[in-house]
Structure formats: C-alpha cells, structure tokens
Amino acid sequence: MGWPPKGLLKRMTVQEAFGPPLTPLELTGNLSDLQKQLNVEMQCPAGKNQVYVRSLLTGNSTTRPRISLKCALRRDIGQTPDVFYEHIRDVCCCDPELCEAWRAMKERFVPT
C-alpha cells in the first residue's frame, strides 16, 4: 500500500495548473529578488527554502514566470500542493496557523 492512498489526490485541472492571475508585483518586479525575500521571511517549516520561480511549458510556448511553492503538507491532506505568491506572502511567511495543512500536520504529530 503506497502513500497517499489511491483516490486521495484528484487530478489537477488546467486552471489549477496555471494558478490564479499574476499579481502586479509578479508582473513588474524582479522575481529572483522576490524569491530570495520570501525564502528569508518563511515561517512555515515545510516551506523553508522551497520558494521558486515557475514557468510551465504549453503547446508552443511557456507561461509567464511566477512565484510558486510545492507544499508537501498540502499534498498529504489531498489538496493541490502548488501555492502561489499571495498565499505564500499572507500565510506561509506570516502566520502558518491560518493554513489548514499546517494545522492537520500538528494534529497528526503530537510532541512527546
């Protein structure tokens, strides 16, 4: 039996793969500097040094680069693991307690 159990993860739709619309900062800012800043400000242990600049291949081109993070905690509870700039800035870098995946992980692992 592998992890995660079969059927827990749903297939990602095209809209989920591309993510929400780009923010003005992602459109005009320096993404490398923003990536470094978010990695330094990261509060969630699952996201430490995990922020990256993402661009997807499409049929004949690529998408615009954007800030992204693959969260293993979200994958563990069956959510899409990809989170984007606004979530990273507002939740991962400020208050992980707002994150459902973080709270679920804390409930699973009781300190001894």
Structural domains: how many? 1
Which strand-content bin applies to the residues?
A: 5-15%
Main sheet, how many strands, which sense, barrel? Answer: 3 strands, antiparallel
Global Rg: 15 Å
Specify the helix fraction band: 25-40%
Q: If you average the pLDDT, what whole number results?
A: 86
Give me the number of helical elements. Answer: 6
**Count the strands?**
3
Strand order of the largest sheet: 1-2-3
Unreliable segments of 5+ consecutive residues: none
Q: Which structural class do the helices and strands define? A: alpha+beta
**What would the principal axes of the Cα set say about the shape?**
globular
Order of helices and strands: HHHEEHEHH
| Through-space gap between termini | 28 Å
Describe this structure in words.
With 112 residues, the chain is an alpha+beta fold. It has one domain. It is 38% helix and 10% strand. It contains six helices and three strands; from the N terminus they run αααββαβαα. A three-stranded antiparallel sheet has the order 1-2-3. The two termini are 28 Å apart.
